[in-house]
Specification:
about 230 residues, alpha/beta, four-stranded parallel β-sheet, two-stranded parallel sheet, 9 helices, about 45% helix, about 10% strand
Length: about 230
């Protein structure tokens, strides 16, 4: 970080299954060490990629991100900007979003037609654009900012729009959401997670360069080109 004007910090463990001690060592202590080092080397700004899960701190991962935010708020000698993205998707996406794409693409029947939740998402191109705005905008200093593509969607809406992007209709059937919530692998599917990005839009004048549909289309193009 020698001679860096600003630092963007993304290096974190992103799994709530990781031991709490490891989350503390990497997500909290490691983040604060890098921020102190950046300040000592003369960087003017430190942009931290946190998570929407820090808002509720409902699991160990969310609590570790919140603890890092709180530690960064105490630092002096450097401008800190915190971004809280929800689920990030785009080319190269992994984990649950990739599994959902595979299921929709292969025509797997999904028990999600009765799910009535609200989820915020952000396309990776929009997130990168927001990071650049946080590096450049004087108004970003000291702010904790949500970032999203725009309006939230329900899980059935997400599946159907994914199907449109993939050229394969999503096959959904009704199933009691209360029962889905009892299954460890599907619990998050029925939960809502909405992010307020009004400060980023109003105070910094940011607008996402890609629509939600364009983000899904580009992700679908990558998926097909990768043999999906």
């Amino acid at each position: 970080m020698q001679d860096a004007e600003a630092v963007v910090h993304l290096a974190n463990i992103a799994h709530s299954r990781a031991p709490e001690s490891e989350l503390q060592r990497v997500n909290v202590d490691g983040t604060l060490e890098r921020a102190r080092e950046a300040a000592a080397l003369g960087a003017r700004r430190f942009v931290y990629l946190s998570s929407a899960l820090a808002a509720g701190a409902a699991d160990r991962y969310g609590r570790s991100k919140l603890a890092a935010e709180q530690g960064l708020a105490q630092l002096r000698g450097i401008e800190v900007v915190i971004l809280r993205p929800p689920l990030v998707y785009g080319p190269g996406v992994k984990a649950n979003f990739l599994a959902l794409m595979r299921a929709v693409s292969r025509g797997v029947p999904l028990p999600l037609a009765s799910v009535d939740n609200r989820r915020s998402l952000v396309y990776v191109g929009n997130l990168v654009d927001a990071v650049i705005r946080c590096l450049e905008s004087p108004q970003a200093a000291g702010k904790n900012l949500g970032v999203t593509d725009g309006a939230s969607v329900s899980m059935p809406q997400l599946c159907r729009r994914l199907g449109d992007a993939l050229g394969r209709p999503a096959r959904l059937f009704p199933f009691p959401p209360v029962l889905l919530a009892r299954l460890p692998g599907l619990r998050k599917v029925v939960q809502s997670l909405e992010v307020d990005d009004s400060i980023l839009r109003d105070a910094l004048g940011w607008r996402p360069p890609f629509t939600f549909e364009e983000g899904l289309r580009r992700t679908a193009l990558w998926y097909r080109s990768a043999g999906g």
